[in-house]
Specification:
399 residues; alpha+beta; Serine Threonine Protein Phosphatase 5, Tetratricopeptide repeat; Immunoglobulin-like; 3 domains; three-stranded mixed beta sheet; 12 helices; 9 strands; 54% helix; elongated
Length: 399
């Protein structure tokens, strides 16, 4: 912060110079005016002396005129180059008062509206924290400086959870969820923190949060894991197995938590069998397969080129915005009928069959960008289990 205050001090000196320089110039002008007044007084005294000598008969009229002209020339020579006096409407005290008040007022406004705290936080985050407590303090100051940052609230909530402060974490996740539009991941984190803050007691509030999260994203991992834990604690072992199997299907093969999750499924199965129950075999969801016929509106055929890219994809109506299944063709291939299924998934954990409702989109992009183009066609919401042929026409500007 030292270099900041040095720069601010230099700027302050520059600003004060604009206020004080006119005052110094005015003092110089005053000295010039005083000298001019003295010369005028001397001139008047010289003229009075000449008039006295003329009255005594020492000087005649010609000598009087010559002496007066000489005195006038001397006065003119002494006052040459002196500017006319300027009348100031502000007066002398006002610039000096402004020179004092401007820096004081500027400092007060900066301390109230400035961003010195954010500058200091930026410097701190440029260095690695030495402890978890230091990281927590930094995040708390960041949240205080930017209370509308959902990202800062999220990271502070995760830090509180690592410190076993679930009640504080629940408050942070709640604020983050309300700021970020109640995203499924934030709802799941909020529900989990609230569950541990309540002493591992299930409640209608936690149930509502997990329901909302899974409705928006059926594979939201935190909610699936939490529901499995709650079911296991409530001795509903089959439910725990089902939730944890769904979670296991979302984790990548190299994820370190797969082993612990598989161990929990095995313990739940053992307790279920010990109580006389039988583990139900999980049924794999039926693979989705959508058939789509895509054509180009007749009025657009003269506005596109055969080599323009055509992206045909399905995306969830409620869930992540990324395509669940996609194919790439060209305008020359139109009209065309394609099939979109789980085999066309962009990511293994985002399969078409995992989402009950989807939307079909066909986009023409001359630049080959799937996310933006010139023309587009969209379908209404439809079930991912639909088997009937869907017709899609590219007929609208892509906005």
């Amino acid at each position: 912060m030292i270099d900041f205050w040095l720069a601010a001090g230099l700027l302050l000196l520059v600003a004060l110079s604009f206020l004080l320089i006119p005052v110094l110039r005015e003092r110089r002008a005053q000295r010039e005016e005083d000298r001019t007044a003295l010369n005028v007084a001397l001139y008047q005294e010289r003229v009075a002396e000449l008039q006295s000598q003329q009255a005594e008969g020492v000087l005649d009229a010609a000598q009087m005129d010559s002496g007066r002209a000489e005195a006038a020339r001397e006065l003119l020579a002494d006052t040459e180059g002196v500017a006319a006096p300027r009348v100031s409407k502000l007066g002398k005290p006002l610039p000096l008062l402004a020179a004092v008040l401007v820096p004081v007022l500027g400092l007060g406004l900066y301390l109230h509206f400035g961003a010195a705290d954010k500058v200091e936080l930026t410097r701190e985050f440029a260095q690695a924290p030495q402890s978890m407590e230091e990281m927590t303090q930094r995040l708390e100051r960041a949240v205080a400086a930017q209370p509308d940052s959902a990202e800062g609230l999220y990271f502070l909530g995760r830090t509180y959870m690592a410190q076993e402060r679930p009640a504080d974490a629940a408050k942070m996740f709640e604020r983050a969820a309300n700021l970020a539009g109640r995203q499924p991941e934030l709802l799941g984190q909020w529900a989990q923190a609230q569950y541990f803050a309540d002493g591992k007691k299930w409640s209608d509030k936690i149930q509502a949060l997990t329901d909302e999260a899974l409705k928006a994203d059926p594979k939201e991992v935190t909610s699936l894991g939490l529901l499995g834990i709650a079911a296991f604690e409530g001795e509903r072992y089959q439910e725990a197995i089902d939730y944890w199997n769904r979670l296991l299907a979302q984790l990548p093969p190299q994820d370190n938590s797969r082993a612990a999750l598989q161990g929990g499924i095995e313990r739940a199965a053992e307790r279920l069998q010990a109580s006389g129950g039988k583990v139900a075999q999980a049924t794999a969801p039926k693979a989705a397969l959508l058939k789509v016929s895509v054509d180009l509106a007749s009025e657009l055929k003269g506005k596109v080129q055969p080599g323009d890219s055509v992206f045909i994809f399905a995306r969830a109506t409620s869930g992540p915005p990324v395509p669940l299944a996609a194919k790439r063709l060209t305008v020359a291939d139109l009209p065309v009928t394609v099939e979109l299924g789980d085999a066309d998934a962009m990511m293994p954990q985002l399969k078409l069959s995992n989402f009950p409702e989807v939307q079909l989109v066909a986009r023409i992009s001359r630049a080959g960008q799937p996310t933006a183009g010139e023309w587009v066609g969209r379908s209404g919401p439809l079930a991912s289990s639909t088997t009937a042929l869907q017709k899609l026409t590219i007929d609208s500007p892509d906005k």
